From TrEMBL:
It is found in: Golgi outpost; Membrane. This is Golgi apparatus protein 1. The chain crosses the membrane at residues 1114-1137. Keywords: Glycoprotein, Membrane, Repeat, Sialic acid, Signal, Transmembrane, Transmembrane helix. It is a single-pass type I membrane protein. InterPro entries: Cys-rich_GLG1_repeat, Cys-rich_GLG1_repeat_euk, GLG1. Signal peptide: none annotated. It comes from the Eukaryota. It comes from Electrophorus electricus (Electric eel). Pfam families: Cys_rich_FGFR. GO terms for molecular function: fibroblast growth factor binding. Cys-rich GLG repeats lie at residues 142-204, 278-338, 505-572, 577-636, 697-756, 764-824, 880-947, 1009-1069. The keyword tRNA-binding does not apply.
Length: 1147
């Protein structure tokens, strides 16, 4: 505590006492009933300033003043008080005035009229009660000028008389002995009272406390009575025109306005930093000290007291004075409509001073004193003292202690809550925000954001949403319905609100307020108290954070959370993982951030340009991130990296996509609840959603979201977590420098296929990768958009031919297959390649596997995936076969019949026969277009010639049997006989079930066929039926019993059973079934006609005709006789030639 060597303020005040005052006394009036009220002891936190002790004695009023308050009279009263502490104590108590025998203000003629008019009679015997009554009179009430000067003289003499110190020494005897600092003060100079005022908060002795408190209220009625204040602020008062030091220019008792003016100037200086007359440092300290001294009793802040008297009566009538309670009450009503503007302005100034120095709030400084010391919040040597005093610094320090689980007293936490709410309600209390709001427009955005971020850090609404009054009011209904299970004020209420963002329970106003707050919370991990508490040890261990107030330059807040989530998804092998509790919280934050791009600071910062360029129209929920993902290849590198990393993270834990999870809640509960309940997702949930994308529980929003994520995954194989983890080593080894997932899948699939075809001992692609590769291939087959190359090639064809078909379920692909003859050349090539792949691996045929799913379970559970279609074909005519599946099998059979390359089994069985017999056809073929069944037709002809290998013959027989039942399985017949079928066999062709009726119709109408190409195809059918009766279903059905009775021992194939039936027909001892006999006779006639129309094209063809001819035995006998004759002629000619040759040699 400084001891002033001289106190010019006293002499100036003394001089002023002898001059006439101005007419401003109205500002110091108070209602009589308030003057009559008893005052409660007030405890003030006073630490730095001193109360001036005046040494002047024997001062008397000037001769021209018609009042005479002699010093002797005052001294006599002080002596009486010194000799009887009880009487002083009583005298200092307004509620219990005690009559004394000394000089009384009530006896002075200058004040008698005013006293009678303004003060209750029971106060007249107590000078201090009279002084308080007249000093705090109503604003509109005037008192006489002479009385004004008398009161001033009385206050001056009272505070400058050395016996005032004697009274204090007697009344505060025990207190002085406890306060060593005060006991050591030099006596006789007034320093003792100054020390007691400084330690007023520590005074427990009732009478001493009352005495010191009363004297403080007297001194604070005029700034010139405060020791040192005028010395330190004289120049600033004049420079800022806050009032005059010269007596007479301002009313003697309205000097509270001077202090208020200085306080406002101090606040403006902090907010604007461009004041023409900056306040000197000593004066700043004096101003803050005065504010601190007046912290417990709002009467001591004279300007605020007079500005808010009516408002105090209106809002805080029942609030007891002391410990800053009236201040707090007025603060709470600051924004009510009934609050006067003058009072609101004074309160705001007071709040701004509190923001600059927390000690200006008595209740906060008192309640948190021990905690501040305990957590060393004011011992940071790296920070300037001014910053330590800032309210924001105090709040940050204590909030950090609370977040770390440390004990902070309940009273302190209550005070912190009040002032955090105060900061949130009025932005003007944060000078940084006001300052940047006036800056250059180009700098405002970043500076303002930083200032707002600092405000949110100080207020910490994440710990208690009620601090943000706007949020509290906007979200009250949502909290009552959606979050009623959470305790009021719990930090998890904000998380609950975020979980219900964009749901039916959320209201628009709450949504806006919530996103505004989350914008800042997302930029500092410490603003989420639950996250901070659960992850502080992990952050220290893994991210090297230490101090609660670590500077942003060393470790930006956003970097800490980035570090945490990088470690959240590390495997056990990688080590350095987060604890379970911390990981849960990190995942919670990630889920919340996914709701809006603005909640991800790094994403917004790096992608601002791209958001404006590509996504300016995408303003709906979640659309901005989807837009960035859609334009991934077009983004700048920094943004591309961030979006890529986020997408990669989503692939591992799709629950981060909160909007998608909300949309898919039904299907998750029905089909994926097992994997959804897992703490660690690792991509299982998305895989499940894809597999169940077409379940009845799947709604449009969920299906669109899942498909979008699948499409995004196609851009980079890393976006498929399970695929990445299973195949990353294989990709690096076999497919380096390839990033697109579809290209990686093709690369690995090609490698697997080549290894399989070459029968290598060890596959180059690992087993776990092959399994996941299969999953990826199956998923890609579901939607043409998941195969970008095919989709791009067929985009125009899709718009032209399949515009009414929705994507998904492979419907568009099926549409292209059905319209294959109308496709553009490039699209046709891609579709053919796709069909070739699907026929080699039917499991990739999404439509087949979907439609026949149940039939596969019924008939083909033991079949290999690659033989699935073959198994289904074998069971196609089973009575238990589902009609839809049967129809799908027929479609695939028709597709296979168009080209041998689409029939892998045939291709393998006839590998040697095709180039041997059909090379001329292969020479004309292209790699990507169908041969329209030409090779198969070629092989059919060779089958009738019985020249095929056994394996190939077996496969051709199957094809012949299938095509004999359904003309659509014979592309050449369908191509050349389309008109004839339409004109002659329309009824048979329209039949839903094809059992060979169309073929029989064409055979029956053979003579009516006009086109040679069609006639040739029908004759080929007849020729084929001669080779195998099974190729002729009508004949086979008619002769089934006869085959069983007469030809059971005959091996099928190579025309043997047909020959058996022909012999039985000629044998008169055998009686065939009438239908069989009729059909056989018809066939004989047809074959005879065929022989005439289409003679044998070669010896093999001739041999077949002979062997199948009814006169086979006769023909064979005649051929044998001819051979014998030739043999005999040869022998005879040979002997003659030999004899002639020998005779010639002998010559």
């Amino acid at each position: 505590m400084q001891k002033p060597a001289d106190c010019p303020c006293a002499h100036s005040a003394h001089a002023d006492a002898f001059k006439t005052g101005s007419a401003r006394a109205a500002e110091l009036k108070l209602q009589p009933k308030m003057a009559a009220c008893g005052r409660v002891p007030l405890i003030l936190l006073l630490t730095s300033q001193c109360l001036c002790v005046f040494l002047t004695q024997g001062l008397k009023p000037a001769a021209n003043v018609n009042v005479h308050p002699p010093v002797i009279a005052i001294n006599r009263q002080l002596k009486i008080g010194a000799s009887n502490a009880g009487s002083v104590g009583a005298a200092s108590s307004v509620s219990q005035p005690k009559r004394t025998t000394g000089w009384k203000l009530a006896d002075e003629e200058a004040c008698r009229e005013d006293l009678t008019r303004l003060c209750p009679k029971h106060t007249w015997n107590n000078n201090l009660a009279v002084l308080e009554c007249l000093q705090d009179r109503k604003e509109e009430t005037e008192i006489a000028t002479d009385c004004n000067h008398l009161l001033w003289n009385y206050k001056l003499n009272l505070t400058t008389d050395p016996k005032f110190e004697s009274v204090a020494a007697e009344v505060c005897k025990s207190t002085i002995s406890e306060l060593r600092e005060c006991a050591d003060e030099e006596r006789g100079k007034g320093y003792l009272v100054s020390c007691l005022v400084d330690h007023r908060g520590n005074i427990t002795e009732y009478q001493c406390h009352q005495y010191i408190t009363k004297m403080t209220s007297i001194i604070f009625s005029d700034y010139r009575l405060i020791c040192g204040f005028m010395d330190k602020c004289r120049e600033d008062i004049n420079a800022l025109h806050c009032g005059s030091i010269t007596t007479g220019e301002k009313d003697l008792h309205s000097q509270g306005e001077v202090i208020a003016c200085l306080e406002k100037s101090l606040v403006r200086e902090v907010e604007q930093q461009d004041q023409p007359h900056p306040i000197k440092e000593d004066c700043k300290k004096a101003i803050m000290r005065v504010a601190e001294l007046s912290a417990d009793d709002f009467h001591l802040d004279r300007y605020l007291y007079f500005s808010c008297r009516a408002d105090r009566e209106r809002f805080c009538e029942n609030t007891q004075v002391g410990e800053g309670r009236v201040y707090k009450c007025l603060f709470n009503h600051k924004f009510e409509e009934a609050m006067s503007e003058k009072c609101r302005d004074a309160l705001t100034t007071r709040q701004k001073l509190i923001a600059q120095d927390y000690k200006v709030s008595y209740s906060l400084a008192k309640a948190c004193k021990a905690d501040l010391r305990k957590y060393r919040c004011n011992l940071d040597n790296n920070l300037p003292r001014a910053r330590e005093a800032r309210l924001s610094y105090l709040l940050l320090c204590l909030e950090s202690a609370v977040h770390r689980g440390r004990m902070v007293s309940g009273d302190c936490q209550g005070e912190m809550l009040e002032y955090r709410r105060m900061l949130m309600e009025d932005f003007s209390l944060s000078p940084e925000i006001v300052l940047v709001g006036r800056g250059d427009k180009g700098l405002v955005d970043s500076l303002c954001q930083n200032a707002l971020q600092a405000l949110i850090q100080s207020a910490d609404p994440g710990a208690d949403y009620r601090i943000d009054r706007a949020l509290n009011e906007a979200c009250e209904s949502v909290i009552q319905t959606a979050c009623k299970h959470i305790r009021n004020g719990d930090p998890m209420i904000l998380s609950c609100l975020m979980e219900h963002l964009y749901t039916e329970k959320m209201v628009e106003d709450c949504e806006h307020r919530l996103l505004e707050l989350q914008y800042f919370i997302s930029r500092d991990w410490k603003l989420d108290p639950v996250l901070y508490r659960k992850c502080q040890n992990d952050a220290s261990r893994l991210c090297h954070t230490h101090g609660w107030n670590e500077t942003s330059e060393m470790m930006p807040p956003g970097a800490v959370f980035s570090c945490l989530y990088r470690h959240a998804y590390r495997t056990e092998e990688q080590g350095r993982r987060l604890t379970r509790d911390c990981k849960v919280e990190v995942q919670r934050i990630l889920h919340q951030r996914a709701l809006d791009v603005k909640l991800d600071p790094e994403l917004q910062k790096r992608c601002m340009t791209d958001l404006g360029k590509w996504c300016s129209e995408k303003t709906d929920t979640g659309q901005e991130l989807e837009c960035l993902q859609d334009h991934l290849e077009d983004l700048v590198s920094d943004c591309k990296d961030v979006v890529g990393n986020l997408t990669e993270l989503e692939s591992e834990d799709i629950q981060i996509e909160a909007l998608l999870m909300r949309a898919c809640e039904g299907v998750i509960q029905s089909h994926c609840h097992d994997v959804a309940d897992n703490q660690i997702d690792t991509g299982d949930l998305m895989e499940c959603l894809v597999q169940n994308k077409h379940q009845k529980e799947m709604n449009d929003k969920c299906a669109v979201g899942v498909t979008h994520f699948q499409l995004i995954q196609m851009k980079d194989f890393r976006f498929s977590y399970k695929f990445k983890m299973a195949c990353k080593e294989d990709v690096l080894k076999l497919c380096p420098n390839i990033k697109k997932k579809v290209d990686v899948v093709v690369c690995l699939s090609t490698t697997v296929r080549n290894d399989t075809l070459q029968d290598v001992k060890e596959q180059r692609v690992s087993l776990k990768c092959r399994k996941q590769l299969r999953v990826e291939e199956l998923e890609m087959s579901e939607d043409i958009r998941l195969e970008p190359e095919l989709h791009d090639s067929c985009k125009k064809d899709i718009n032209r031919l399949c515009s009414a078909i929705t994507f998904g379920n492979a419907q568009v692909i099926e549409c292209l297959k059905e319209n294959k003859q109308y496709l553009s050349h490039m699209c046709h090539q891609k579709v053919f390649k796709l069909q070739e792949t699907e026929m080699m691996d039917p499991e990739l045929d999404y439509q087949l596997m979907r439609v026949c799913k149940q039939m596969i379970k019924r008939f083909c559970t033991e079949s290999d995936a690659k033989n699935m279609l073959h198994c289904l074909k074998q069971n196609k005519n089973n009575e238990l076969m589902d009609p839809k599946c049967k129809q799908m099998i027929t479609k695939r059979q028709i597709t296979q019949s168009t080209d041998y390359r689409l029939n892998p089994v045939l291709r393998k069985a006839c590998k040697a026969d095709i180039p041997k017999f059909c090379q001329n056809i292969l020479n004309k073929a292209s790699d990507d277009n169908e041969l329209e069944g030409q090779v198969i037709s070629c092989l059919k002809l060779k089958y009738t010639d019985q020249r095929l290998s056994s394996d190939c013959e077996d496969q051709i027989r199957v094809i012949l049997q299938e095509s004999a039942l359904d003309y659509r399985l014979d592309p050449q017949l369908q191509l050349h006989c389309s008109e004839e079928i339409t004109n002659l066999c329309a009824e048979e062709a329209a039949a839903q079930e094809q059992t060979g009726q169309v073929e029989e119709c064409l055979k029956t109408n053979l003579l009516k066929l006009k086109r040679d190409a069609c006639k040739k195809e029908v004759l080929n059918m007849l020729k084929e039926s001669k080779a195998d009766i099974f190729v002729d279903p009508v004949l086979h059905t008619a002769c089934a019993l006869d085959l069983k009775h007469h030809c059971a021992a005959v091996t099928p194939g190579r025309g043997r059973q047909m020959s058996c039936l022909m012999e039985a027909l000629q044998d008169k001892r055998v009686r065939l079934q009438p239908e069989c006999k009729k059909r056989l006779q018809d066939r004989i006639d047809m074959w005879s006609y065929a022989a005439k129309v289409a003679p044998a094209e070669g010896f093999s063809d001739l041999a077949v005709q002979v062997m199948t001819s009814p006169s086979k035995n006769y023909i064979l006998l005649m051929i044998a006789l001819a051979v014998c004759v030739l043999f005999l002629v040869g022998l005879l000619c040979g002997r003659i030639i030999k004899r002639v040759t020998r005779e010639l040699k002998d010559r």
